[in-house]
Amino acid sequence: MSTGTGAGTGTAVGRPAAGGHGRTPGTVVTVTPNPSLDRTYEIAGLARGAVLRADADRVDPGGKGVNVSRALAAAGLATVAVLPLGGPEGALLARLLERRGIEVAGVPVRESTRVNISLAEPDGSLTKINAPGPEISPEEAEALLEAAGERAAGAGAVAEAGRGADAEAGHGADAEAGHGGAAESGSGAGTGRAGRGPAAGASWIVCSGSLPRGLAPAWYAGLVARAHRQGVRIALDTSGPALSAALRERPDVVKPNAHELAEAVGRPLATVGDAVKAAEDLRGAGAGTVLASLGATGQLLVDATGTYFGSAAPVPVRSDVGAGDASLAGFLGAGGAGPQALASAVAHGLAAVQLPGSEMPCPADLRPGEVTVTAEPPLDHPLGRPLSRPLSDSANGAV
């Protein structure tokens, strides 16, 4: 890894293929302990104490793991969403997911699923109001763990049969391109986009988002341990004590943003080099791979093979809700390892910020040719600031 300064060009390791994914993963089971209905209002400007009229509004299924499932389904990949569902809000959430072709493994809970509000302004400013969500009882918490394990095992069994059928037919599922109705409007309409059937075993469980009231910080750690006993890899996207506890069980991938990465190592991060060192520290604490979102600067991948940095030219931001979740889906959908998966993650995040609300990108939204990945990150570049020029993949030749 270079120790040079500034943006630099580095050693390029290529761009994602124009078609999107590399290796197709097996079924991805997502676990979202605190899902939501996300209502987004697009407004001309935010003024405290005033009556505001929305130019547009939409309702999307919400929660970080839910968003990962939505992005995978939009790409035609198999996914199962495990989540607690309560009240009419939970019922609507399940319907919205099913309309997108996502299998829902809902665990009934006593209290209602939360509703989150986002106010989006034309300049990209986003004001969010996140509800606390239901309090989960010990019995409901255990039911969630059991549902995740059962779905991971069940998806693997279904997929094994699917592999045999695919071998006989000589083909797999094709990715769905283009948009259907991506959200349910305030009137209740919406068609969604369907995913495809499983193409391989249940290779990943994604544990994602905050923990609701009633779940101890060690809850994710228990899920990681159970998954590894089943031989299933874990991708973890959480923060604070929940992340610290789970690292002891050695999750295969952790996906912090810059703020969460700084919190995890207990020190401020000012440059890409600081983020690289923090990611290395997380690996030392138990993470197999660290995929870190660095906002407008780019994304960072640190694993056993080395350090990689992915970036693209800045684009107009319509909404950044769920962009990190789309990135994780892109990473897993491209095999969940290496620079090509990082390039897919960057392409998915780049597409997501240009869409309304928490809409997830489909293959037609992706611009993989705009993404560059290098094995020589710009170590001295300030975090939060886009590169002044894209990293060139012509310096030493793309591979």
Automatic annotation (TrEMBL):
Pfam families: PfkB. Residues 45-144, 204-358 form the Carbohydrate kinase PfkB domain. Residues 1-29, 156-195, 361-399 are annotated as: Disordered. Gene3D superfamilies: 3.40.1190.20. Signal peptide: none annotated. CDD domains: FruK_PfkB_like. Residues 1-23, 178-195 have a biased composition (Gly residues). Keywords: ATP-binding, Kinase, Nucleotide-binding, Transferase. Transmembrane segments: none annotated. The keyword 4Fe-4S does not apply. Residues 163-177 have a biased composition (Basic and acidic residues). Coiled coil: none annotated. Belongs to the carbohydrate kinase PfkB family. This is 1-phosphofructokinase family hexose kinase.
